[in-house]
Specification:
The chain has 551 residues and is of the alpha+beta class. Helices cover 52% and strands 16% of the residues. The protein contains 17 helices and 9 strands. A hairpin with a 2-residue loop joins strand 6 and strand 7 (181-194). The longest helix has 34 residues, at 512-545. The radius of gyration is 26 Å and the shape is globular.
Length: 551
């Protein structure tokens, strides 16, 4: 492990966070640098930052610099920031979502900064952060103590820390006020440096310096509406690691809920809604940078889960904003739908009739026609991410959660509903969803397609609710078997959906070669639907036999 000689921690004369949540020491003149070096300070007790980062092109940076929204009394010129990032030979810090860097600004003393992923309940825009003044452009881990030092020792062991890449940016910083919040805006133009390679780096960052996060989110939404900026939760460190390793961002599945048993409804609403929003955001980079079909699938799952959660909460808390965000989530999912439908159909064809009949030549015209639609679907999906709409959606939703906007729908004694223990609300909500499934599922195997579709929607909502609230009841009964049975029944009902989706696409084909393959596919999925019907009755019985875990 690299060690420099122990240094006395020094305060930064001006703290200013980068896209990886980094903070640096400002003040380029010699006097300020000497004064800074002479002072000593322990790290702030609040090792957390809230920051929103936007990607920008050159035109976006120019617009940001000229925007009256980012005007400031401080007209100081830009500063050149050089940051060296360290990791072990096997990238253990990167793999644990930790960034360790040493940054220098002008002739000021270097600052070592350690960044890590915040708790899930804090959301994608919050990160853990701690910084120290150091004497050299090398990290000094002897300055750390407590749980953080122990965690790093356990992770790193005796492995050496090596410089892996640099970022070099020219930063213009502006101090702003919005509502009750003090906000620092940083406009960065520079590069990631890995050996002889360079990657352009253009970002606009907003960091909360004082006040409430809700004001930061609301200001960010206003800024995004006026400038060509796209929100991005991928840090400088993550982008640089991907560049260094020749990798791309991977799709992200929903992290299991971790609601404590003693939580009240008010806080549960915040954590569940924020978790769905974070899940949606976490897959933007994979869609933008890769061809992995799981990215769009996970984004649509996140939006469905969000809509389900908002509908569930709206029954107890009649907030009009719940319905507004539900409607917007549905429209976003609809725009992403064609790309996902093409991915799903291609997978069904390749794993089903194509694998069975084994003659790819007969299926080539069909797959070519499907690929044309898939390419257009992905162009549409990526154009959506580059537009204002999803950026403003996630920022406004984050502001809504930060200010607990649903409280405005209640008054007086009605507010007491928000202090109810979550197990009471969850039990009632799950029971209602369960009864809806039983009602819609009567004579399930004999139901027509539309009625089955409604039963499947009810099952999805029950499954999402069960996954949200499973930790609340885990001390009473293991929820896993109930959730598995719900998911299995949902998937069996999905066989009819698959056949219906295939028919919708295939019916529009006019090429004779594609039409022949389409006939094989249609027959294959008609057969699959019949086989699913044979399983359906037994799966329905199995589902009804499992005792609900919330009772």
């Amino acid at each position: 492990m690299i060690r420099t000689e122990p240094s006395t921690p020094r305060p930064a004369t001006q703290v200013d966070a980068g896209a990886d949540g980094a903070a640096e020491q400002g003040g380029a003149d010699d006097a300020a640098a000497k004064d800074t070096a002479a002072e000593a300070e322990k790290p702030s007790a609040s090792a957390r930052e809230v920051e929103i980062k936007f990607r920008a092109d050159p035109a976006g940076l120019a617009a940001a610099l000229a925007s009256p929204l980012l005007a400031s009394a401080d007209k100081s010129p830009g500063r050149k920031l050089t940051s060296v990032y360290f990791d072990t030979p096997d990238w253990i810090l990167h793999r644990n979502r930790i960034a360790l860097r040493v940054r220098r600004s002008g002739r000021a003393a270097p600052v070592m900064t350690l960044k890590w992923q915040a708790d899930a309940c804090e959301g994608s825009f919050a990160r853990g952060e701690i910084e120290f003044g150091v004497k050299k452009l090398q990290p000094d881990l002897s300055l750390l103590d407590g749980d953080l030092a122990e965690r790093l020792r356990d992770l790193i062991g005796d492995a050496p820390l090596e410089p892996r890449y640099e970022t070099r940016v020219m930063r213009v910083a502006r101090e702003l006020r919005f509502g009750g919040a003090g906000i620092e805006a940083a406009i960065d133009d520079g590069v990631v440096v890995v050996g002889e390679r360079r990657l352009p780096l253009r970002e606009v960052e907003l960091e909360l310096k004082s006040g409430e996060a809700r004001d930061l989110y609301e200001f960010a939404a206003i800024l995004a509406d006026s400038l060509p900026l796209v929100v991005d939760i991928v840090s400088k460190a993550e982008r640089a690691c991907h560049f260094a390793l020749g990798a791309v961002a991977a799709p992200v599945k929903m992290r299991p809920a971790a609601l404590p048993r003693e939580i009240i409804l008010d806080e549960a609403v915040a954590q569940i809604v924020l978790g769905c929003c974070d899940h949606f955001l976490a897959n933007w980079a994979a869609l933008r940078d890769s061809e992995d079909p799981e990215s769009i699938h996970q984004m649509r799952v996140a939006l469905r889960r969000l809509r389900s959660a908002l509908a569930m909460f709206k029954r107890a808390i009649p907030s009009a904003e719940f319905e507004r965000f539900r409607a917007e989530a549905r429209e976003l999912a609809t725009i992403l739908g064609p790309a996902r439908d093409c991915d799903a159909l291609r997978e069904l064809i390749e794993d089903g009739p194509l694998a069975h009949f084994g003659d790819g030549k007969d299926f080539s015209p069909l797959l070519d026609a499907l690929e044309q639609r898939r390419v257009e679907g992905y162009r549409q999906a990526r154009a959506l991410l580059a537009a204002k709409r999803p950026t403003i959606f996630v920022l406004q939703l984050s502001a809504f959660v930060a200010r607990r906007g649903w409280r405005n729908a209640l008054s007086g004694e009605e507010l007491s509903v928000l202090t109810r223990p979550i197990d009471v609300f969850a039990g009632e909500a799950l029971e209602r969803l369960y009864k809806r499934v039983l009602q819609r599922g009567k004579n399930l195997s004999q139901l027509p397609d539309e009625a089955r579709h409604q039963a499947r929607i009810a099952l999805k909502n029950l499954r999402y609710g069960a996954e949200f609230f499973a930790p609340v009841f885990a001390h009473v009964r293991n929820p896993a078997s109930f959730i598995r049975a719900t998911a299995r029944l949902q998937n069996v009902l999905g066989a009819h959906n698959d056949a219906s989706s295939a028919d919708h696409f295939l019916s529009g084909l006019h090429d004779s070669g594609a039409a022949r393959a389409a006939g094989l596919v249609t027959g294959w999925y008609a057969r699959g639907a019949l086989l699913a019907d044979e399983e359906l009755a037994q799966d329905w019985k199995d589902f009804k036999r499992i005792k609900p875990f919330w009772r």
